[in-house]
Amino acid sequence: MIESSYKSNADGVKLSNTIALLIALVIFPYIFIFQQMQGLEFMSPLSAVLSFAYITVPVLNHFKKYLAAKIYIVIQTTIEITVYSMVLGGETLLFVYFFSMVLVPLMFFSYEEKKLIFFSYLLILVNLIVDISYKYFTNDALMSSSYMPLIIGNIAVCFCLVCIYSYRIVQEKYHYSRRLEAHNQHLTDLIDQQIEAEEKLIKARELAESVSEAKQNFLSSMSHELRTPLNAVIGITNILIDSKPNEDQVDNLNVMKFSADNLLSLINDILDYNKIIAGKLTIEHVPFQLHEHVANLREANSFNAKDRNNQLVLSIEEQVPTFVKGDPVRIAQVLNNLINNAIKFTENGTINIRLKQGSPEDATVTFEVEDSGVGIAPENIDKIFKDFEQAEASTNRKFGGTGLGLPISKKLLHLMNAEIFVHSEVGKGTTFTFTVPFGVVKEEVQTQVTPQEHEIGHQNELVGKKVLLVEDNLINVKVVAQFLKKWGMSHDWAENGEIAVKMASKNAYDLILMDLHMPVMNGYEATKIIRTFNPTIPIIALTASALLEVKGNLLAIGMNGSVTKPFVPATLKNEILKNIMITAPDNVSSN
């Protein structure tokens, strides 16, 4: 574009300089002609002045006053023609001059400068009217053979101007064609580049989707493979603890359960980290009893705290609402991470869990977890919230850990519109603080959210109920079967989905516990088929997959809920109770 503008200006300078020189050469002979004409001698010096005045044009062009140079030529030439025509007379001379002058604006100005073309024509027209009026009133219409050389000269000038104009039109057309061709080529290149970029983008997107899908499948598979044996370990441990073991066995069982729970927590951290990074982790907004929820968390961590001779103290201000609306699972995950960290870095000390009212107008609650442990140096505080990093390299060797707990907690709180803050002094301890804007729970909803609702109010609802347990892992079957027996329920076992479909079509069950990953026929396909002949029986997924996408698919195919393995016995029992209570009358067992 800059080069094109430069060429256009250069062409204009050449043209205006050429025309100025041509007109000056035409006027120059009049210096001598007027000296021989009686009564017109005064025109000789005027012609000399007018001829040499055209030196103004190249001067203006030199100072890049290109437009002024063109306008100067139009004005001076128009006035000169009028003066010479009035002095010399003759209609032919007049029209030849003005005909020549008509071509000048067209050569000088482009279409974008059409206002200057109109101005030039207006100037020519005014001078033409002045000249004709003068000759009309003075009756000066001379025609003499002495003017013939001047007429021929003017015709020659006119011819030259026509040639110059035609040449300029050809040149402009050529340059325009070249610019248009270059512009089209530029557009073609841009289109080709855009198409190439879009093709690369499509391939990159397809590759990313493929990698993401493979990653999700891998995580789902690994989740299942890790949780399945872990479910057996935790399940058998819970059964042994509930079986009134000897005192010398209790500590060993507690250590086993604590180790298994830590391994489960590590697996959950890795899966949650991937879900958060992928942007696929969502926060629930359900009503729950906050006081009891936090008290249960304290009780769950009390054994670990006593093992390091720590006191775990919970204090809740009276103004803190008992019922709130939020995500109890993620709140528990954040608090567990902070409490576990406090216990890990504190020995023979005190760990305080405080809940304070954040705002009297809503259900905002401020949480504090304070310990009297080793503390964190100021230069290391920013590190503890970075993925896979710990305050010091020696921390992992001495205390263990993956460096994911605090980063995940920060990301979870961010999803809940909360920020976490830390205050610490080396040798004195650390305090973590965060404020969560919970939703307000209405009074009529609070009556429906009572502590251990299903455990207390419906103890006998499960007695005599019959369950179809669909599971391919014999150890998991044994674990679940013992809990079902403990709750007064009977069960049939199907080792895959195909057998489950046949048994569900022939027998009446109050509920189906369905594993997802099985040989022959998986839980998804089995559920779809069962729903074709029994749309009301509750089907609960008992799966080792904790991915959000899996849980979403369960509801889509007609399952009523899900419990993730390794399961907490109370969680499974409550899920069964919830679904048994809404069971249709035609799903009653036939014993």
Total helix count? Answer: 20
Mean pLDDT: 78
Low-confidence stretches: 1-7, 141-146, 393-400, 451-457, 584-591
Largest sheet: 7 strands, mixed
| Cα distance spanning the termini | 91 Å
Radius of gyration: 48 Å
Structural class: alpha/beta
Described by the principal axes of the CA atoms, the overall outline is: elongated
Approximate helicity band: 55-70%
Share in β-strands: 5-15%
| DSSP strand tally | 12
Walk me through what this model shows.
The protein has 591 residues and is an alpha/beta fold. The chain is built from 20 helices and twelve strands. It has helices at 2-27, 30-35, 43-52, 56-62, 66-88, 91-108, 114-138, 148-242, 247-277, 290-307, 328-344, 393-399, 405-415, 443-446, 453-457, 474-486, 497-506, 523-533, 548-557, 569-580; strands at residues 286-289, 311-316, 323-326, 350-357, 363-371, 420-425, 429-440, 466-470, 490-494, 511-514, 539-543, 561-564. The strands form two sheets. Strands 1, 2, 3, 4, 5, 6 and 7 form a seven-stranded mixed β-sheet that branches. The chain is elongated, with a radius of gyration of 48 Å. It starts with a helix and ends in an 11-residue tail after the last helix. 29% of the residues are buried. Residues 1-7, 141-146, 393-400, 451-457 and 584-591 have low confidence and may be disordered.
Short description:
Helix content is 61%, strand content 12%. It is built from 20 helices and 12 strands.
Task: List the SSEs and their pairings.
Layout: H1 2-27, H2 30-35, H3 43-52, H4 56-62, H5 66-88, H6 91-108, H7 114-138, H8 148-242, H9 247-277, E1 286-289, H10 290-307, E2 311-316, E3 323-326, H11 328-344, E4 350-357, E5 363-371, H12 393-399, H13 405-415, E6 420-425, E7 429-440, H14 443-446, H15 453-457, E8 466-470, H16 474-486, E9 490-494, H17 497-506, E10 511-514, H18 523-533, E11 539-543, H19 548-557, E12 561-564, H20 569-580
Parallel strand pairs: 2-4, 8-9, 8-10, 10-11, 11-12
Antiparallel strand pairs: 1-3, 3-7, 4-5, 5-7, 6-7
Helix pairs in contact: 1-3, 1-5, 1-8, 4-5, 5-6, 5-7, 6-7, 6-8, 8-9, 8-16, 9-13, 10-11, 11-13, 17-18
